[in-house]
Write a structure and sequence with these properties.
- There is one protein chain.
- The protein has 268 residues and is α+β, with helices and mostly antiparallel strands.
- It folds into three domains: 141 residues, Structural Genomics Hypothetical 15.5 Kd Protein In mrcA-pckA Intergenic Region, Chain A (Roll), CATH 3.10.290; 54 residues, Ribosomal protein S4, central domain (OB fold (Dihydrolipoamide Acetyltransferase, E2P)), CATH 2.40.50; 56 residues.
- The protein is 13% helix and 32% strand.
- The chain has five helices and 19 strands.
- The strands form five sheets. A five-stranded antiparallel β-sheet has the order 5-4-7-8-9, with no helix packed on it. Strands 12-11-10-13-14 form a five-stranded antiparallel β-sheet, with no helix packed on it.
- A hairpin with an 8-residue loop joins strand 17 and strand 18.
- It is globular and about 55 Å long.
- About 11% of the residues have low confidence.
Amino acid sequence: MSRGGHQKRLSAPDSWPIERKTAVFTVKAGAGPHGQRGVPLLVLLRDVLGYVDSRREARYALDQGSVLVNGEAIGDAERPIGMFDILAFAEREEFYRVFPGEGGRLALTPIEEGAADSKLAKIIDKRQVPGGETQLNLHDGRNLLIENSEEYSPGDSIVIDYDDEVLAQFELEEGALVTAVRGQHAGEIGELEEYVAAPGSSDNSVRVAQNGESDDAGFETIADYVVVIDENFTGGRAEETVATDGGRDLSATETDRSSATPEESDTE
């Protein structure tokens, strides 16, 4: 595994579930899916779950092939992990879905083993490719070739297994269950009440209804900021989501790292 660079915690993406002021540096995400918003696997193993205390321990665990991301054994501690990825720790019999939490910080939601065989993906775009097939471009950077192009539209969500077979589809339409993944309402869930197409190059928007005491409970946000989900993706999330500031007490270890050089904090 190659050594990567270092990321100052204060300037890390808002989606990263890390403490900002208890240490200076954290590991920098390597190349891979999810772009800049992807969280290095090491951060989840060390700072969120508390399964390892250092990069060295993480490297050992990954070398055993015991950490699976979307059904694949991962050997790179800097591999970016992002929205709706599935983490599996078979030896521990623990399985998690990455879900947007409060404020847009990515959190880990425990799921059953049977739900770890597929993942949700948002369709960002679709286009014709040579051969007559249609290519769906998904939110995590993957592409999927399909034959029945009329069935799918940008903004819809699909559930796919690790052989790229579509198991389910959720259309972006009024009445759909959605979650905001960006913006000031990130992490909130509700029913899509209205889709408003804006003129020209302006952003389309949506009105999302929520259960509440007032008749106008809900929020408005940019349409691209919401993802259609199934009710199974919300079960127990509020009660069972692993805390985004860590699955263990970080005060001692993170304080010790705050005065260390990047090299020391990354290899201890």
